[in-house]
Amino acid sequence: MGDRRIGVDVGGTFTDVTLSLDGELVTAKVPSTEDQSEGVIAGIEKACEAAEVDPETVSEFSHAMTVSVNALLEQDGAKTALVTTDGFRDVLEIGRQDRPSLYDLSAEKPTPLVPRRRRFEVSERTTTDGIEQPVDEDEVRSIAEQLREMDVESVAVSLLHAYAHPENETRVADILRDELDVPVSASHEVLAEFREYERTSTTAVDAYVRPAIDHYVSRLTDRARDLGIPQPRIMQANGGITDADTVRRNAVTTVLSGPAAGVVGAGSMAADEQDGLVTFDMGGTSSDVSLVRDGEAERTTEGVINERPIKTPMVDVETVGAGGGSIAWVDAGGALRIGPRSAGANPGPACYGKGGTEPTVTDANLVLGYIGASTSLGGELSLDADAAHDALADLADEAGLDGPLEAARGVYRVANANMTRAIRSVTVERGYDPRKFGLAAFGGAGPMHAAAIADSLDIDRVVIPRASGVLSAYGLLAADEKRDAVRTYQRSLDAVDPDDVEAVYEELAEELLTEVSDRETATVRCSADLRYAGQSFELTVNVDRPFDTADARERFATAHESAYGYRADESVELVNCRVTTTVERSAPPVEYTAAGDPRKGSREAVFTDDVRDTPVYERAKLPPESGIDGPAIVEGDESTIVIPPAWEVRARDDGTLTAVVSDT
């Protein structure tokens, strides 16, 4: 039966499925469900039925979900307690002295995930040199009794300097695990890195989402077993997959699971001969933007979700609340705004005909003619054009616009402006010229907006991968297995002993290699967080082994010059050692064939201020190397592609479409 892989990505509106078998790629979309595992199984069954295969013949199941990020955004995670060092009870509340809105006198910090009444102190003391005061075990057991009486659902343990000497923290965590029947997250296991606030915050997030992840993965594993498919392998925020048991223990690594899968999918299917790709994933609730350079997704360890720092390695994604289901509204000053509130999957946009009455981006696209009234979203959801017009007519009245068509133009432009700013934030604001990149557009709504956004940024090339509407699900089929480890090792490069640094890398690598699925094929990559003496934060650069201080110093200076425009004649400090292990997986081979007449007909669509009779094509029937001049609309089962005037699109041999600015 060959290699049959299935990938399932849960979004805010739809659950996307890709199934690869014998060179064929079968896709499916189903509405997302409150219990995400129900929609996942429904999607798998739909894809298998379309492919006429038994689910029991599936050899591999990879999955990306939104359970953890939803818990953070909606603040409905576990009832969590924090145990910390005496005197550091309020670290979560104090945070850093910097303020996101410096001149806003009414600015408020986010409510801590753990309220003060559930934050407990233990009498212990650890310094960077070692243990000065051991833990009083009776005191810890007394805290455990109080936690039991409070019915907490999880516990975070973050003791001072546990990243350097974890003995006290290990003992506290062990006692709590013995005394309580709830998960316990210890900071040295979650993030063995200095900076008390960020380490405590990341550990608290892990504890906050861990019960939800554990329950969800357990339900999904049981449902998968009942269907006869393998245990799911889960996409992490770092762009790699791992086994289900690992994410149960390290729940915080799943916070950007879905967006990471999309970036991986874009990198595997949309190779571009330019400097790289700006990836643009527009789904039902939000849009995610990232960069792929030299075939690798850009990563960061400075993530923030709902104003809470999370210092786990993750694909560097900028998210804006502008998706197909984002609701358009008028603010107090009379300005048209989009999102972040979304109509979701139920009731969804007004045009879904499920009772929604508020205007959304999808409704605007329908009124503009980019989506046809006869279009069936996801292959099964028919649209109500009258409901979309009514919703936008109400918006037009509120905004003082001339009817639903003018309101739809405004919604489209504002949504594009929001996404353009996000792209500038990952390119221009980080020293990259967006004109040197291609724009890879995917997600259910991305290809409808991509060319207009590219125009505003002077990007002359848009790449729409095959299966663009379910590209995150495809990325799951192509993602490598990845694991990360970090340890703070703070020294001046002038005084560091390279052999000591090499020993740290060796120990970290060995820890990870004992956990990988195939040690023989695993590769190890080392990096270092470096900074000039006196700086507050670091830059991460790759380093070779054996560790060479001169080489590390030069790589840091080059990276600093690229990021900030200069290099300094200052001492360089090594701060953290990082190791990533990778077990590579090749993307499944996918054949592309097309037969039949791709022209489906035409409909009126709005471009700039003109209403044009626009030809409509069926994507699956576009033969390789064929070209279409804009204006045109290309429809697929999962997404619709809008080609404006002055653009043209061509099909590649693998089914990827490339839109470029026309020479004429």
TrEMBL record:
Residues in Hydantoinase/oxoprolinase N-terminal domain copies: 5-179
Pfam families associated with the record: Hydant_A_C, Hydant_A_N, Hydantoinase_A
InterPro entries referenced in this protein's UniProt entry, alphabetically: ACX-like_C, ATPase_NBD, Hydant_A_N, Hydantoinase_A, Oxoprolinase-like
Span of domain Acetophenone carboxylase-like C-terminal: 504-650
Hydantoinase A/oxoprolinase domain ranges (all copies): 199-482
PANTHER family: 5-OXOPROLINASE RELATED, HYPOTHETICAL 5-OXOPROLINASE (EUROFUNG)-RELATED
Name of the protein this chain belongs to: Hydantoinase/oxoprolinase family protein
Organism: Haloarcula argentinensis
